[in-house]
Amino acid sequence: MKHEMPQLKYAKNALEPKMSQETLEYHYGKHLQAYVDNLNRLTENTEFETMPLEDIVRKAEGPVFNNAAQTWNHTFFFNQLTPEHSEMPESFKDALCRDFGSVEIFKEKFTKAAAALFGSGWVWLVKDKDNKLDIISEPNAGNPMRKGLTPIMTIDVWEHAYYIDYRNKRADFINAVLELTDWNRAGELYAAR
Ligand code: MN
Questions:
Q1: Distance, CA 162 to ligand 1 centroid (Å)?
Q2: Ligand 1 centroid to residue 94 C-alpha, Å
Q3: What are phi and psi of 91, to 5 degrees?
Q4: Cα Rg of the chain (Å, integer)
Q5: Which residues have C-beta within 8 Å of that of residue 144, sequence separation ≥ 6?
């Protein structure tokens, strides 16, 4: 199966000034493209060649896992962003309040986890099999589906995600991603069975 680049749902300049066109040209256009190309090259003529991407993420190790998970994670991340103002569905707000205390406390905890992750990786809001929400930090290409958890939203804290726009100010990038997140989509992913 040949893996393809996901199409962005917005123009490359639509997230400015929080996320620049230049960042999308590099992060989406070059970094994600490289992961997709590497994945296609590494899986050719292997047991993974005909496997759906999610299954490769769950089963592979080493370079195949790294490039498959980075393809999946970036696709999820870019699909999460929106230039439109989005409202959280009430049921999702209720779940955040139940599991974190309030929406604000959730955002504070997510921000702290994203700021504290040392080096490269991803911080995820996930739900478990009982629909309980939690925040988990994963190094490098880590993906919560390997632990049986369902991703709801995420942030990429690799330096390539923010260095063009924010240099060393990761905290400013975290704020920007929270403002660019489509909370309606997060709520739909939470509600999905
Ligand atoms: Mn990235």
A1: 9
A2: 31
A3: -65, -35
A4: 16
A5: 124, 126, 136, 138, 150, 151
Q: How many helices (H) and strands (E) does the chain have?
A: 9, 3
Q: What is the pLDDT of residues 55-96, one digit of tens each?
A: 999 999 999 999 999 999 999 999 999 999 999 999 999 999
DSSP E strands, the chain: 121-127, 133-139, 150-156
Euclidean distance between CA atoms 137 and 91, whole angstroms: 25
Taking a C-beta distance cutoff of 8 angstroms, is the pair 152, 182 a contact? Answer: no
CA of residue 75 to ligand 1 center, whole Å: 10
Structure tokens at 124: 């995820």
Instruction: State yes or no: pLDDT of 1 exceeds 80.
Output: no
* Pairwise CA distance, residues 120 & 118, whole Å: 7
- Residue 19 Cα, ligand 1 centroid: separation in angstroms? 13
The alpha carbon of 98 and the centre of ligand 1 are apart by a number of angstroms equal to: 31
Is the entire prediction scored with pTM above 0.90?
Answer: yes
Contact 73, 156 (CB under 8 A): yes
| 57 CA distance to ligand 1 middle (Å) | 16
